[in-house]
Amino acid sequence: MTKRMIIDPVTRIEGHLRIEVELDNNNTVKDAWSSITLWRGIETILKGRDPRDAGLIVQRFCGVCTYVHYEASIMACEDAFGIKPPPNARLIRNLTQGIWYLGDHIMHFYHLHGLDWVDIVSALKANPKAAEELARSIHPNPWNCSASHYKAVQERLTRFVKSGRLGPFANAYWGNPSYKLPPEANLVIVSHYLDALQISKVAAQAQAIFGGKNPHPQHLVVGGVTCVLDMLTPSRLGEFLFRAKEVKDFVERAYIPDVLLAARYYKDEGLAGIGGGVKNYLCVGGFPLNDDMSSFLFPKGVVKNRDLSKVWPLDEKLITEEVTHSWYEGKEPQHPYSGTTVPKYTGLSKDGYLKGEEKYSWCKAPRYAGEPCEVGPLARMVVGYAAGDKKIKSLVDETLKVTGLPAKVLFSTLGRTAARAIETKLVADQIEPWLNELVKNIKSGDTRTWTYCEVPKEGQGRGMTEPPRGALSHWIKIKNYQIENYQAVVPSTWNCSPRDKNGKRGPYEESLIGTKLAKADQPLEILRTIHSFDPCMACAVH
Amino acid sequence: MDDYRKYVSKHYNRLLEQCKVRLDEVEREYPEPREDFQALLKARGISRRSFLKWTGVMTTALMLPPIFKPMVARAAENFSRIPVIWLHFAECTGCSEAILRSSYPNVDDILLETISLEYHETLMAAAGYQAEKCLEEAMEHFAGKYVCVIEGAIPRGLNGQYLRLGPKGETGLALGKRVVSKAAMTISLGACAVWGGIPAASPNPTDCVGASKALGVSTVNIAGCPPNEVNFVGTLLHFIMFGSMPPRDGEGRPLWAYGKRVHDFCERRPHYDAGEFVEEWGDEGAKKGWCLYKVGCKGPYTFANCPHLRFNDHMSWPVMAGHGCIGCTERGFWDTMAPYEKPIQEAAIGGGERTIDNIGIILTAATAAGVAAHGVYTAIRKKDKNQEEQKQEERE
Amino acid sequence: MEHYVAPLKHWTVAMRINHWAMAISIFVLIATGFLIAYPVTISKGETWLKFSVGEIRFWHLFFGVLLTFLFIWRLYLAFFSRFHADWKDLFAFLNIKDLIHQIKFYLLIEKEGPPHRGLYGPMQSLAYLGLFGLIFLIIITGLILMGAGYHAGITAFIYSILKPVERLLGGLAMVRYIHHVLTWCFVLFIVVHVYMAFWYDAVLKEGTLSSMVSGYMFKKEGH
Ligand code: HEM
Ligand code: HEM
Ligand code: NFV
Ligand code: SF4
Ligand code: SF4
Ligand code: F3S
Ligand SMILES: [Mg+2]
């Protein structure tokens, strides 16, 4: 006998996600469906507008990873207009995206994902002194670490619990046997949960220095950036660097140690490959390191079937989306340039479940050469590792050495979470060099921030970048100076994909198969794996 | 004049009385503060003096005289008593993010950190049935007391089925109606919740509208995409102090925040008046911080306090970043403010550019030509007529 | 043989002053208006020594407010002029037969226009009534635009009354857009209007052109 379980709303993500699983008698997931339950139709809204306006509109796909769609759209236009932004613009774009990588990943680990690993109630039982010792056993100088501070955090939590109003922490899964951390580890990470609230604000401020605000910065234009005044004001660059360093410090002294701490206690799940999912990984290239876009901090390519010995070059023509199981019109897989988005809603079954055999999600099914692929931090690290990228390889190897775990541990929920921390460090290390490069360029007399351009009467172009959640591509077609067609294939679209016409599950769905629930009515393990992808539904369905 | 002053002071004394009664009521009827505000101030290193300064600023921001400062302080202490149910509809979570990334280190940031979120899908630990339970419990325990915050537009197309939520697959429309019916006050947070925002931009494929229209309730509209968190904090403080919505303009926006135009307080305004404009991105004018009107700034048509408050701890705001305002606090701005990088009258209707001026020029030219032809024709006919007359005369 | 009799008083002094003041205002408003829409960048010089857009805006508003008063005055004259309250004449176009007759005359199909029953022919009445409408609209939109930037005094008071209109029109940006479109309507009007004035003068020899200066028109008399 199997039983069907609905998890809706999936919380601690962006947007509206429903997961349904089929559990066997052993409470093990036999089958799974992921469904996005909101459609806004922004691709439709874009038609007939000025291509230069698209960036600000598509930025509103998402306010969490904010900025990235703005950039992708601007890049698509630049491709279609046949121009290249000047070096300063590339650097400022890298800086604005880079600093928010830090903010977004930190926020994800602590505020969205943390409570899948950490039991707040258990933290109340911790010995603050022992917590301090534990923290120091991982890092010589941990963030905000002292017995008295941990005690104060504990007191604040206690007051909270005593007030009888747990608010956002009510009715959760405290005490579930799947929580593996000792009370002291819980306390350390919970204290950083609170610190991280502040730190992500610092990252947001830094982004706002160039962007004008966060979320939804407003400093890009086709051909470059607008924040030339900030760029030419040394004190503004100083303010940026100051904040970037503070955030980097947090990454090194809190985020990474906390992930290592979690890995210590959850390594069995990782070694068992729980949450591994589909076996293909795709990266479209993130953070261009030169102006002809031939070298990236995150190299592009595809790894198939977890074969780390080979990287396939990315062939854009092989990217398709199809809608056999999505609430849209259409049969055959479509390349995004000629993609369509025509809604065709067919609802839930009579007893309120997803119609798994038919259409069941607003999410389309992106495929590469017909195969589902995982995108995101893990994919970036896997592709970079397989490609032999020096920075990535040494950081990944180092982390594996510290934890004493083999490379296969990467292909799991834990591995995905660790990959995110690793790449955060990679980006954090890059901020200062980028800023220095910018200063050097300005000093050499190059103050250009924009390349002249005009909207062509006709044309097409695509912009590709790697936002925090994975591979992003925007595809624009222009006719009579207006947008004729616009399609976005988004990281969470890849990962949250429903089945395709061959019945192949998407990464979320596949990653849940075989997951065992400790308690039949508490979907903690499912949330943990789903959250490890950092789902963003507003991105996935736009 | 004296009479006037007496009238004003009487008015404010009455208001002050009202405020005291209300705060007593809050302290009596609402649950205990969940967090010790004073302790948090101390922990965050905010001195008594800077707290007092903040109450001063906030009091003025709310357009109240200084005698209200102690009331603002008392409201702040009671901030975490007010239960908040926060619903997400057709949105991007940018508004939540904006509120969570409030100014730091600041009193606002402590207030927002202690806000009593009974339900907020992006932050709550529970999911699925357990999350549903949180909502039902909060609605029951705090019926008539909670503030409902709405983020996102509400699709009405397909009977609301473009958005379905919860284990029962309720439509956003139905859920929203249920929750606001028991709220003490409803706040529409952000352009989407206020007027439909981005999903309601033409052609509005899902028939999205703002919360007020979809749910049939009166709301405080904190406009912006996303809005400034201070405007949200102020609205909540006002609710704690007076138990009601703040005075609002015709669009439901608090007057103290949306009473004046971006253009009126813009730091680049002197350059506007001096005729100093950025002509092209990154040109000499841009390097000098000149006015962005010609590259499409919509500050002259936009009511918002962005130049005053700025964003992210006063770090910057769109005009400072050199792009210019796109009017994100105005109704229908995605359509009415396009093109975002050209002045409004240069809008292209159906491709090309400067449609209206081109039409104007063509029509004027055509009219001039028509008039000229008419003139010539008149002259020719007159000549004919004269000749005819002459001939006739001759015949006579 | 036809001859011209002593001139008839057609326009009062008030009407004439009003007309030419309006004409001047409208010219200035069109010029300054387009300069507000497409301001000229002055790159040279110190910011604090320059006030070009400020000045243009000042003159636009000056003549805008002047036009507002002139318009009110003109309405007053239409209803309460002691010489001839012409508001009824503005509805001459309601006489469809005359209207068709007039159009034929303009198109040079008919040799003579319909008889003048009031101050204006049927087409004239339509044009001027339409023009009054245009002036009214551009004043309303202008006052809204003006009020949006002033937060005290009578401007603010008027603005508070007009605020619902702003909302109705779709916000301040739409008001500005409409104001701009209306400007083009004025440009078109002037081309036709001035031409017609000359045309009348040339064809009818009734002294239309000079009547707006002297106030007198001539009346043709048959034998
Ligand atoms: C060539 C010289 C012009 C002559 C002979 C002329 C003559 C006239 C006449 C006879 C009328 C109708 C009288 C009336 O209703 O008051 C009139 C109305 C009007 N004219 Fe002209 N006009 C001339 C130029 C202009 C110009 C250049 C403008 C504007 C820039 C203008 C604006 C108006 C307006 C606004 C009205 C209608 C309002 C009103 O009736 O007071 N006119 N004109
Ligand atoms: C025939 C009469 C008028 C014409 C042709 C005219 C024309 C214009 C034009 C072309 C603009 C620029 C609009 C744009 O940017 O697209 C403008 C702006 C403006 N007009 Fe007028 N206008 C007239 C009457 C008035 C009146 C009666 C008022 C007020 C009493 C007024 C007040 C304004 C204001 C306040 C602005 C905006 C200026 C700013 O933002 O600083 N206008 N006008
Ligand atoms: N998926 C996604 Fe995004 C990201 N990162 C973007 O493209 O989150 Ni809102
Ligand atoms: S108003 Fe803007 S920021 Fe807020 S939810 Fe809507 S699109 Fe996102
Ligand atoms: S930049 Fe925009 S808001 Fe500022 S003065 Fe210029 S037009 Fe006005
Ligand atoms: S775009 Fe929005 S944020 Fe302010 S400056 Fe303009 S209203
Ligand atoms: Mg898409």
State the CATH class of chain C.
Answer: Mainly Alpha
CATH superfamily of chain C: Transmembrane di-heme cytochromes, Chain C
Percent of residues in helices of chain A comes to 40-55%
How many separate helices of chain C?
7
- The CATH architecture classification of chain C is Up-down Bundle
Structure commentary:
- The complex is a heterotrimer of chains A (542), B (396) and C (223).
- With 542 residues, chain A is an alpha+beta fold.
- Chain A has 17 helices and 14 strands.
- Chain A has helices at 42-46, 54-58, 68-81, 87-117, 120-123, 128-138, 147-162, 183-211, 228-231, 234-271, 377-386, 390-403, 413-443, 491-496, 507-512, 524-532, 537-540; strands at 3-7, 17-23, 29-36, 220-221, 224-225, 281-283, 286-288, 296-298, 301-303, 319-322, 365-368, 458-465, 472-479, 482-489.
- A 3-stranded antiparallel beta sheet of chain A has the order 1-2-3.
- Chain A is globular, with a radius of gyration of 23 Å.
- The model of chain A has no long low-confidence stretch (mean pLDDT 97).
- By secondary structure, chain B is of the alpha/beta class.
- Chain B has 3 domains: 2-258, NADH:ubiquinone oxidoreductase-like, 20kDa subunit (Rossmann fold), CATH 3.40.50; 262-336, Cytochrome-c3 Hydrogenase, Chain A, domain 2 (Irregular), CATH 4.10.480.10; 360-396.
- Chain B has a 5-stranded parallel beta sheet, sandwiched between helices. In chain B, strands 4-8 form a two-stranded antiparallel ribbon.
- In chain B, strand 5 and strand 6 (170-171) form a beta hairpin.
- In chain B, helix 3 (48-61) packs across helix 4.
- Chain B is elongated and about 115 Å long.
- The model of chain B has no long low-confidence stretch (mean pLDDT 94).
- With 223 residues, chain C is mostly helical.
- Chain C has a single domain (2-222), classed as Fumarate Reductase Cytochrome B subunit.
- Chain C contains 7 helices and 4 strands.
- In chain C, helix 4 crosses helix 5 (153-168).
- The longest helix of chain C has 33 residues, at 172-204.
- Chain C is elongated and about 60 Å long.
- Chain C starts with a strand and ends with a strand.
- The model of chain C is unreliable at 1-6 (pLDDT under 50).
- At the A-B interface, helix 1, helix 4, helix 7, helix 8 and helix 9 of A face helix 5, strand 2, helix 7, strand 5 and helix 14 of B.
- Bound molecules: protoporphyrin IX containing FE (2 copies), NI-FE oxidized active center (NFV), iron/sulfur cluster (2 copies), FE3-S4 cluster and magnesium ion (MG).
- One iron/sulfur cluster binds next to helix 13 of chain B.
